Amino acid sequence: MAAGESRAEEIGVPCNIAVVDAGAHLVAHIRMDGSQLGSITHAIDKAFTSCAYRRSTEALGRDGQPAAPLYGVANSHQGRVVIFAGGIPLVHASRVAGAVGVSGGTIGEDRSVAEAAFAAF
Amino acid sequence: MAAGESRAEEIGVPCNIAVVDAGAHLVAHIRMDGSQLGSITHAIDKAFTSCAYRRSTEALGRDGQPAAPLYGVANSHQGRVVIFAGGIPLVHASRVAGAVGVSGGTIGEDRSVAEAAFAAF
Amino acid sequence: MAAGESRAEEIGVPCNIAVVDAGAHLVAHIRMDGSQLGSITHAIDKAFTSCAYRRSTEALGRDGQPAAPLYGVANSHQGRVVIFAGGIPLVHASRVAGAVGVSGGTIGEDRSVAEAAFAAF
Amino acid sequence: MAAGESRAEEIGVPCNIAVVDAGAHLVAHIRMDGSQLGSITHAIDKAFTSCAYRRSTEALGRDGQPAAPLYGVANSHQGRVVIFAGGIPLVHASRVAGAVGVSGGTIGEDRSVAEAAFAAF
């Protein structure tokens, strides 16, 4: 999470960063000063989504578009499934050990912060 | 369900398989080792959906696309309606006796496992 | 689960039996013929509760009474917390590996079936 | 939060610690290693409750008992209201600036960790 925060500061985008364990349960969450309220839930739910589906929220988002194979997936799990960039599974020895979720900026900025957190992991 | 599990093992895809009764209520569920967490709810809800709408989730999905007749159906029932393949009603003597729902692989794999379960029924 | 089913048959009480993993996620569920519909959710949620709180639902129930230390706990987790007997954590080497939840009979009968499943584990 | 974690380590109780802002929105959350799953939501919701009601969850709990003035309050807000100890409002210059919520041990332990976090604030 520190690596993610550093990256967020570097690009000047206050973010929410969340980490979940292998059971998709919250381990830690931080909201940086100035981040919008709507991003709290997105960060936590992006981490949840990436863990539950073992892929980035961005990849899931491609399959979740109208006419794509998983269209409608975003309606499931009481609306906790996020299908835009910012969630990345934390893979260790071919297993999903958890996931990180980032929200606060554009999806490109969120992805960049999530990748920094992932790289540190 | 045993037939579904056999098919899932045959194609090497750990799945969740769920069966509901004529009232769309869960009768049994099994998660095979190694299946992703997000598929638990999908299997159960695919079975629910197929029973409630008396058609495969795949067929409902065609009608649930933007501009199609039932667009928005996936928002109903607290998000329990699934509109991609893997749910099949169990029809007996022209009546829906229940349904099976499968989730774990691609939608093609899920359909294949559901069809194996259906065939055994 | 087979041990639980045997016990349930022995005492003539059709039950729902559910098992969750260490993350409180459903691994398997079975509803025996003749069990009431309300017990499906209870069995699954008793297993969830016992895993999440690392104790039997009966023990949690003692603390969840009016004026007891955890009064109000049953309102949390979107109402998934069950505070009457039938849920038991599956402890292995001092860690909670999951839990079993049983519902269908009186709380004494549910406890008895859960204990049989626990003993087999 | 660091002060809370120190206190939790001192008494040997792995806790969840959450902080919300004056709008009752999550600012940060940490789950210490070994804490039970059920405590994630409790910590966050205790902080929410203390901020929303401008008092400790323990004080609210006294009013939330059967026959007390606010009996039923724990049913409100989609079950997010917690009425046992562990949530304390963070008061600054007579205004509620936010709240801290702690869950993981007995209510006495949770209160102790929350008070340590409050004192540091």
Q: Within the largest sheet of chain A, what's the order of strands?
A: 2-1-4-3
Mean pLDDT of chain A: 96
Main beta sheet of chain A, described? Answer: 4 strands, antiparallel
Oligomer: homotetramer
Low-confidence stretches of chain A at least 5 residues in length (pLDDT < 50)? Answer: none
Give the largest interface pair and sizes: A-B, 21 and 21 residues
Give the overall silhouette of chain A.
globular
Structural class, judged by helices and strands of chain A?
alpha+beta
Strand content of chain A: 15-25%
CATH topology of chain A: Beta-Lactamase
Radius of gyration computed on alpha carbons of chain A:
13 Å
InterPro entries (chains A, B, C, D): GlcG_carb_metab_protein (IPR052517), PduO/GlcC-like (IPR005624), PduO/GlcC-like_sf (IPR038084)
Protein name (chains A, B, C, D): Heme-binding protein
Organism (chains A, B, C, D): Streptomyces albipurpureus
